[in-house]
Amino acid sequence: WSSDVCSSDLKMLEPLLAASGEALAWPRELARFLVGACTGEQLVAAAIAGPAAERAARRCAAWLHIGLVARREGRQDEALRAFARAVATDQRDQWEWAWAFAALRAVAGEG
Questions:
Q1: Cβ proximity of 91 and 60 under 8 Å
Q2: From the CA atom positions of the chain, what is the Rg in Å?
Q3: pLDDT of residue 24
C-alpha cells in the first residue's frame, strides 16, 4: 500500500475507529490493522482478548487478514504461515477459514 492509500482509507474509517461500544470493538481492530494503525501481533492479542465464545473465530479472521496483508506486501512465507494458523483454528464455518484453506491449497497446487 502506498501511504496515500492508507491515509485515504484511514480518513474513510475515522467514524468506525472513533466509535465506542463492544459491538464495534472487533471490526474496529480489523480496520486498524488493515490501515496500518496496529500490528498483526496486536490484532491477534485483540482477538484473544475478546469474548470467549468468539475467540477462535476472531483468531481465524486475524490470521487470514495478516496473511492477506503479508501476501500483498510480497512476504509469501509469512503469508503461508498466517494462512496455516487460520486453518489450524478449525473454524470451518467461518468464511475466513475457507479463504485461508483455499490459499493454502492454491500454493500446494491443489486448487
A1: yes
A2: 14
A3: 79
Supply the pLDDT for residue 8: 66
> What's the farthest any 2 CA atoms get from each other in the chain?
44
**pLDDT for position 3:** 43
Kindly report, residue by residue over 77-100, the tens digit of the pLDDT.
Answer: 999 999 999 999 999 999 999 999
- CA quadruple 25, 30, 32, 38: dihedral sign: positive
Who contacts 73 (Cβ-Cβ below 8 Å, separation ≥6)? Answer: none
- How long a stretch of residues is the chain? 111
Handedness of CA 46, 94, 98, 17 (dihedral sign): negative
> Which grid coordinates are listed for 110?
491443489
Res 4 pLDDT > 60: no
Q: For residues 97 and 60, is the Cβ–Cβ distance under 8 A?
A: yes
* CB neighbour list of residue 80: distance below 8 Å, 6 or more residues apart: 67, 104, 107
